[in-house]
Specification:
The structure is a homodimer of 141-residue chains.
Chain A lengths: L1 E10 L3 H12 L4 E6 L4 E10 L5 E9 L5 H9 L2 E9 L3 H9 L11 E2 L5 E5 L9 E5 L3
Parallel strand pairs in A: 1-4, 5-8
Antiparallel strand pairs in A: 1-5, 2-3, 3-4, 6-7, 7-8
């Protein structure tokens, strides 16, 4: 079951400047940085609020670290903005992805990959989701 | 202060079909419909989770009801997808907007307008927010 908005993924050209914008404009100061080599991005997770399922909702700011990363290509086409949305699961992310695949939605990875803060993730094809690249997130237990 | 992700606003061509996608694919069944004549949209609020500030996070699905509404123009240019993000305030929305305007971010309305479910809202210019059309929401008290 999907029990929360886990995060909103926002692509940007300059991670440090964008984090500073969110900090100085809105006061979001709970920030976690990491590099995801597999996805070709450097990212910051800004915690916005706790959620009723015992987890939290974040903004995920993502900056490409390679010109051939999917996010670099997306930025070249679209410019900065919302790249994807992510729902959190209360169980195994691949069980959730399999259930959704059974409803005719294409799942992007055959097996879960590593997401932010040790999570396990998969993605759903935006063309099957009314234009929204949608991520499923199982937080680190 | 901004205390939650209030909603993610998603523009769509067919509201009923898109609500049905979110219901049947993910099981989101807590849905509120309304028409906002001023904004020129019909919309559905799908509740996703409770938030730590005593409110909730939603998906807001929006379908234009007039060809000259801003969302109709946005859809014609971009196709279906994430249109804006919204943060919830813990106080008066215009006080929050004024504070943000003082940091050099353009606020779109001189005074708050009516948002979903009786809320008071304002918007921040996406060009001042790293490409993200950003809404501020004071929920109905």
């Amino acid at each position: 079951m999907l029990t929360r908005i886990d995060h909103i993924g926002i692509a940007c050209h300059d991670l440090d400047a964008t984090v500073e914008f969110y900090r100085s404009t809105y006061g979001f100061t709970d920030v976690h940085f990491e590099v995801n080599e597999e996805q070709g991005v450097r990212e910051a997770m800004l915690k916005i609020n706790d959620t009723g399922d015992g987890a939290a909702s974040y903004l995920q700011l993502i900056e490409p670290i390679r010109d051939d990363s999917p996010v670099a290509k997306w930025l070249a086409k679209n410019g900065e903005g919302v790249h994807h949305i992510a729902f959190g699961t209360d169980g195994d992310v691949q069980d959730e992805a399999d259930g959704i695949a059974g409803k005719g939605v294409r799942v992007l990875y055959e097996a879960p990959r590593r997401g932010s803060m040790g999570s396990r993730i998969n993605f759903l094809h935006p063309k099957d989701c009314h234009g929204v690249l949608t991520e499923l997130v199982q937080k680190k237990s």
